[in-house]
Description:
This protein has one domain. 67% of the residues lie in helices and 0% in strands. The protein has helices spanning 6-9, 13-39, 51-73, 89-107, 112-124, 129-132. It is globular.
Amino acid sequence: MSKYDDKNWRGNPDGHAAMLVALQNIDAAGLHIHGEAVRSGFYEMRDETDPMHAACVAGLIASEVHEMIDTLRAPEPEVAPRIGGDFTHEEEEAADTFIRHLDYCAWRKLRLGAAVVAKLGANRRRGHRFGGKKF
Length: 135
């Protein structure tokens, strides 16, 4: 069982409250990340009203997920090539995925924090593995 099992967050009011505070701040983090992406030139030719551009940016999220999966396929865990330290390559790609996702949500003006809180509430009302799915 994961160290993040049900008892560690649902039964812990302090943990749940901390999670809610973090999620309320996630949109502010996204705005900062998006500002960095704009300053780095990633939005010079993007129009947030164009679905094709949004699909392109969402595709970059999928690309980062694919890169993370590739790290799992490697024969041995690798050190993160660009961020160094004691981070694994998997951690680096997870960070890339998270950064791209927050950037996308800020760019599209999505209320990610509120949506995650609402989704977690809805998921609590669903059955085990959401209706018996195998995984």
